[in-house]
C-alpha cells in the first residue's frame, strides 16, 4: 500500500534543502489551519517525519504515526514534512533522508521504526541542536538529543493471544512476523504466552517473512498472503500478523478462506482502515499500538518548550497498547480479556519479551 509522496510547492530556506528533499521523496505541508478546524495559529514549529518501509497508506504502523502528525498539524498549527523509505535501500539512504529534513530547517525530526537507529544516532551527533525522536528503538549509545518512543507490544499481544485461543475451534492458531527482529519477537512472545494461558496445549504456527538485512517483509502483501495460506492449510483458524502492510495480504487470505476463520490486525484498528473494511467481518480484533498518541505528545511537548527526553515507554496500563473492539466480536470473551488486562496492569502477570518454547 506504499504510495510515492512528491514534494509539494513550499518555500524552503536554501536551494540545497529543496533539492535534497525532492530527492528523498518528501512531502511538505503548510502550517495554516484549515477553515472550521480547531487548529491553533501557526506555531513556527517545523516537524519532519521519516517513515518506515510501507509509508503513509500502509493501513498499519506508519498510518498510526501519520495520524499523530496530522493531529499536530491541525491542533498545534505546526508545519510538517514527510519523507518515505524505499524497500531495499541502503543505510546511507536513511541518513540522507534525515539530513535533508535537518537541512530544510525541520526540528524536531521523527524517525518511524527501529531500522533508523544507526542513522538517527549518526545524524543526531552531527546536529546536536536538532531534536530527534525514534519510534520502537532505544540504545545506550544514542546522544542526548534523541528521544526514544517505545511500546510494550508484548502486553497487547498477550491479550490478542487470549482472544485467539478463546475463539479458536481448532485449538490451532498462527503468528506471522514481518521481519525476524527483536521487536517483532516481542509480539510473538506475548501472543504465545496469552494463548497458552487459556489453552496450554494449543498449537501455534510461527512464520517470519524475511530476516535482516532484508526488511521487505514489512511491505509485501503477497508474502503475507502466502504465509497465511500456509498456516490455514495446516489447520490454523486464527492468525495474528505483525508485519506492516504485508499483514494486509494475510488478512485477505483469512477473510477469503472457507469456513469461519479469524484474522487479528496490528498497530492500527485494521477493521476500520479503508483498504481493509471489506474484510471487517473476519477481523476478530487488532492489537492497537497508539503510535499516534506518542507522536502527538512528543510534538506538543516540543512546541510547549518542554521536550521529552530519554526513553518514553507506552504500556498497557498507560494506554499505549490495547485491543480494538470494532465489530463487537470480543463481547462473549470480554471477561477473559478484562481478567488478563488486570493481571498485567497489576503486575501479577509478567509478559515475556522473548518467545518461550
TrEMBL record:
It comes from the Bacteria. Pfam families: Bmp. Residues 48-352 form the ABC transporter substrate-binding protein PnrA-like domain. Residues 1-22 form the signal peptide. Gene3D superfamilies: 3.40.50.2300. It is a lipid-anchor. Its main location: membrane. The keyword Cytoplasm does not apply. Keywords: Cell membrane, Lipoprotein, Membrane, Signal. PANTHER family: ABC TRANSPORTER GUANOSINE-BINDING PROTEIN NUPN (PTHR34296:SF2), TRANSCRIPTIONAL ACTIVATOR PROTEIN MED (PTHR34296). Belongs to the BMP lipoprotein family. This is BMP family protein. It comes from Kitasatospora paranensis.
Amino acid at each position: 500500500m506504499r504510495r510515492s509522496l512528491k514534494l509539494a510547492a513550499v518555500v524552503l530556506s536554501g536551494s540545497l534543502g529543496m533539492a535534497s528533499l525532492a530527492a528523498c521523496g518528501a512531502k511538505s505541508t503548510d502550517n495554516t489551519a484549515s477553515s472550521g478546524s480547531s487548529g491553533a495559529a501557526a506555531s513556527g514549529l517545523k516537524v519532519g517525519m521519516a517513515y518506515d518501509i510501507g509509508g503513509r497508506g500502509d493501513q498499519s504502523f506508519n498510518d498510526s504515526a501519520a495520524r499523530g502528525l496530522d493531529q499536530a498539524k491541525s491542533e498545534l498549527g505546526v508545519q510538517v514534512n514527510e519523507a518515505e523509505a524505499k524497500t531495499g535501500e541502503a543505510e546511507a539512504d536513511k541518513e540522507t533522508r534525515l539530513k535533508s529534513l535537518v537541512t530544510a530547517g525541520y526540528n524536531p525530526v521523527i524517525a518511524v521504526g527501529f531500522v533508523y537507529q544507526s542513522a538517527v544516532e549518526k545524524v543526531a551527533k552531527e546536529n546536536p541542536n536538532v531534536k530527534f525522536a525514534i519510534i520502537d528503538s532505544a540504545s545506550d549509545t544514542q546522544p542526548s538529543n534523541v528521544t526514544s518512543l517505545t511500546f510494550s507490544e508484548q502486553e497487547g499481544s498477550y491479550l490478542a493471544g487470549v482472544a485467539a485461543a478463546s475463539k479458536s475451534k481448532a485449538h490451532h492458531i498462527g503468528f506471522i512476523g514481518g521481519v525476524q527482529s527483536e521487536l517483532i519477537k516481542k509480539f510473538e512472545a506475548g501472543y504465545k504466552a496469552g494463548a497458552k494461558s487459556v489453552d496450554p496445549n494449543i498449537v501455534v504456527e510461527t512464520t517470519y517473512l524475511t530476516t535482516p538485512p532484508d526488511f521487505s517483509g514489512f511491505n509485501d502483501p503477497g508474502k503475507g498472503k502466502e504465509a497465511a495460506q500456509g498456516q490455514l492449510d495446516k489447520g490454523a483458524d486464527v492468525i495474528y500478523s505483525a508485519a506492516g502492510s504485508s499483514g494486509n495480504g494475510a488478512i485477505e487470505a483469512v477473510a477469503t478462506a472457507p469456513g469461519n476463520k479469524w484474522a487479528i490486525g496490528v498497530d492500527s484498528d485494521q477493521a476500520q482502515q479503508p483498504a481493509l473494511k471489506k474484510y471487517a467481518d473476519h477481523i476478530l480484533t487488532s492489537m492497537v499500538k497508539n503510535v499516534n498518541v506518542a507522536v502527538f505528545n512528543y510534538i506538543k511537548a516540543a512546541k510547549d518548550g518542554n521536550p521529552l527526553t530519554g526513553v518514553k515507554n507506552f504500556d498497557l496500563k498507560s494506554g499505549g497498547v490495547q485491543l480494538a473492539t470494532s465489530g463487537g466480536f470480543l463481547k462473549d470473551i470480554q471477561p477473559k480479556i478484562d481478567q488478563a488486562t488486570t493481571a498485567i496492569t497489576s503486575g501479577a502477570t509478567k509478559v515475556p519479551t522473548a518467545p518461550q518454547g
